[in-house]
Amino acid sequence: MTPGTASLTHTTALARLGHALSDPTRAGILLALREAPAYPSDLADALGVSRQVMSNQLACLRGCGLVKSMPDGRRAGYRLTDAHLTAALDELLRVVLLVEPDCCDREGCTCS
């Protein structure tokens, strides 16, 4: 692909990923699922949020096509939809290390 030839599909997919990563809980879910599949209750406990918040955030991530549920008897676990997401998140974590950690601390942020 040459510069400037990103399709609308690419743009939409990146916007969905950006939306998912813009919320700390959703970002935490994605990072946790990059390690291993998990149950919502375990994710809620690990991230310190209510089960209702976890349910809402997982619904958002499902709607974005980033996670999928895996039925397991009366429960359902979650995993990333594609192994490429794991690699992409690993690469993003490498990039984050290059960014000034305090540049957008909400109070002095010029990004929003």
Automatic annotation (TrEMBL):
InterPro entries linked to this entry: ArsR-like_HTH, HTH_ArsR_DNA-bd_dom, HTH_Metal-responsive_Reg, WH-like_DNA-bd_sf, WH_DNA-bd_sf
UniProt feature coiled coil, ranges: none
Domain HTH arsR-type as annotated: residue spans: 6-100
Listed Pfam families: HTH_5
MF terms (GO), sorted A to Z: cadmium ion sensor activity; DNA binding; DNA-binding transcription factor activity; lead ion binding
Record-level GO BP terms: response to cadmium ion; response to lead ion
SUPFAM superfamilies per record: Winged helix' DNA-binding domain
Protein known as: ArsR family transcriptional regulator
Lineage: Bacteria, Bacillati, Actinomycetota, Actinomycetes, Micrococcales
